[in-house]
Write a structure and sequence with these properties.
Elements (H helix, E strand, L loop, with lengths): L1 H25 L9 H6 L12 H30 L2
Helix pairs in contact: 1-3
């Protein structure tokens, strides 16, 4: 069971890293609707594709997918750990 948890952990780290990288890359493609400060203070604005240019929207979608994958993998790992007790 611990091998499965390690695999989920590695996959969750890869998803987190992907979200961080795509979020960082999308900063170069802000549409001007919201500033970088607004994105940092109002985190929910990262999920609004209108805040990015067309190229930035591609990166933003990858960020959102990676973000969701990270939390799904973490919840799955927690569920597996709880069931293995």
């Amino acid at each position: 069971m611990s091998v499965v948890l390690v695999l989920f952990g590695v996959a969750a780290f890869a998803a987190w890293l992907s979200a961080a990288v795509h979020g960082f890359w999308s900063l170069a493609h802000l549409s001007g609707r919201k500033s970088l400060g607004a994105l940092l203070l109002q985190g929910i604005e990262w999920f609004n594709s209108e805040n990015f240019t067309e190229r930035g929207q591609v990166l933003q979608r990858r960020f959102v997918r990676s973000f969701v994958a990270f939390f799904v993998l973490v919840l799955a790992a927690v569920g597996i750990a709880a069931l293995s007790r």
